[in-house]
Each structure stands twice: as C-alpha cells, then as structure tokens.
C-alpha cells in the first residue's frame, strides 16, 4: 500500500520501516503508545503528530494504524483507506513476518550492543504488540485469537472514528480504479504493486540486521580495544 500511495503522489508515505531509518522516532511512538494504552504520560496533540509525521503525505501499517482516531482528530480532512483482508490470512502473514521478526534470538545480543536502534525498537514493538494483541505467547490458540481480535478492533475503531464519506473499504485485488476514484487522482498505466510478501520482508530484515551489527561494532569498538589493552597489560605484568 505504501508503494501504491507514493506512486499516486501521496509520498512520502510513513511505514513501520521508517522507524528503522530514523530510530529516534521509535521513542516517540513508544511515548504515544504508553499514553494511549497505559495512561502513562500525556496524549499526543496535533503538534506532536506534526513533529513525527509532518514530513509525510500519507501513512500506512503500524504504528500509525494503532492511532486512527487520534490521527483523524488531528487531521480531520484526511481520507482513510481501510484495506480489507481476511483475518486468518492476515494472521498467517504475521506469523511469517513480524512475529518471526520480533521473536528472533538474533536481536538479543543486539539489544545490548546497538543502543542506537535496537534498544529503541524493542520497547516500541513490545508495547505495540502487547497493547493491540495482548501478552499471551505460550498458548498458540489463545494467542491467535488475541491477534485476530486486536486486528478486528483496529478496524472497528477506524470505522467509528472516521465518517463514511471519508473512508474507503478497499481490497488490494481491486486494483487502481476504486482507490484512484476515492482519492481523486488519475489511474496509473502501471500495474498495481504487490511487494510486501514474506520473501521481501525477510530480505529487508537481513539488511536491517547487518546494518545493526556494523553499527554495533563501531559503537563498541572503543570498549573492545580498551578491554584488550587491559587484558594485555595484565598478561604482561602478572
């Protein structure tokens, strides 16, 4: 959906991976999530949303999807596209993408070594998922139901907050026509994009992990050198 909106001229379009490119934004999302779901801190105002999203023409994916009523209040003239997808299909996709990503053990050492991104990303994603989908991880049946309930709640919240004339119920398989008509733009000659599959997601994660390790090596190199120096001195004078 991000690619489609940007192709129609509504870019930049904010997506979760924008947080990975600008890690300080993870702190703001965590702050906003805590205020909404845990009553910790103040709720975000138009000025806060402008600071976080003001450089964008559109948003998609989470974390923004968790704040549709708040964003509608801040930007009351904005149109909302509700992308319809069967909950079972959505959950299966999550299992192979964000759930696998967030549970990966490769991020455990990075949490301690990459204080620039990973140490900001982990609290944001943990707060996001627990707020929307609960904390159940041991019972797969209950966890699945919690995620589907959370998914449905986000959609219900959007439909209650946004007037019918300002929202479009849209399935990606419908292609450009209904989306372009709703947004008031011409239909592109190119095919409707479909790029957020599991293989594309996995490739993006591996690039992200590689960047984290490179940054962690640079951030921690002085400590490693100092440690080696101390060890060498101890060995020479023991």
Question: Can you tell me about this structure?
Answer:
There is one protein chain. With 238 residues, this protein is mainly alpha-helical. The chain is 63% helix and 5% strand. The protein has 12 helices and 4 strands. Strands 1-2 form a two-stranded parallel ribbon. A two-stranded parallel ribbon has the order 3-4. α3 packs parallel to α9 and α6 crosses α10. The protein is globular. The relative contact order is 0.13. The C terminus is likely disordered.
Q: What attributes does this structure have?
A:
globular, 12 helices, mainly alpha, disordered C terminus, 238 residues, single chain
Helix content: 55-70%
Q: Report the strand count.
A: 4
What composes the largest sheet? 2 strands, parallel
Report mean pLDDT, rounded to a whole number: 87
Structural class: mainly alpha
Q: What is the strand content? A: 5-15%
How far is the first residue's CA from the last residue's CA?
64 Å
Helix segment tally: 12
Shape category: globular
Spell out the helices and strands N to C. Answer: HEHHHEHEHHHHHEHH
Low-confidence stretches: 224-237
Read across the widest sheet, the strand sequence of neighbours is 1-2
């Amino acid at each position: 959906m991000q690619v489609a909106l940007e192709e129609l001229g509504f870019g930049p379009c904010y997506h979760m991976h924008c947080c990975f490119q600008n890690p300080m934004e993870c702190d703001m999302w965590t702050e906003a999530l805590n205020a909404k779901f845990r009553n910790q801190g103040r709720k975000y105002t138009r000025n806060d949303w402008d600071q976080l999203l003001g450089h964008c023409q559109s948003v998609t994916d989470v974390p923004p999807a968790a704040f549709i009523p708040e964003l509608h209040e801040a930007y009351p003239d904005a149109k909302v596209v509700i992308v319809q997808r069967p909950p079972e299909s959505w959950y299966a996709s999550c299992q192979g993408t964000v759930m696998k990503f967030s549970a990966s053990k490769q991020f455990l050492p990075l949490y301690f070594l990459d204080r620039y991104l990973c140490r900001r990303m982990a609290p944001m994603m943990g707060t996001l998922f627990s707020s929307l989908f609960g904390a159940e991880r041991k019972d797969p049946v209950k966890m699945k139901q919690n995620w589907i309930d959370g998914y449905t709640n986000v959609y219900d919240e959007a439909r209650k907050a946004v007037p019918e004339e300002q929202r479009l119920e849209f399935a990606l398989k419908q292609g450009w026509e209904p989306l372009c008509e709703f947004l008031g733009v011409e239909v592109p000659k190119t095919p409707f994009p479909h790029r957020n599959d599991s293989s594309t997601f996995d490739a993006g994660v591996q690039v992200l992990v590689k960047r984290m390790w490179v940054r962690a090596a640079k951030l921690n190199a002085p400590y490693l050198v100092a440690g080696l120096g101390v060890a060498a001195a101890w060995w020479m004078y023991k």
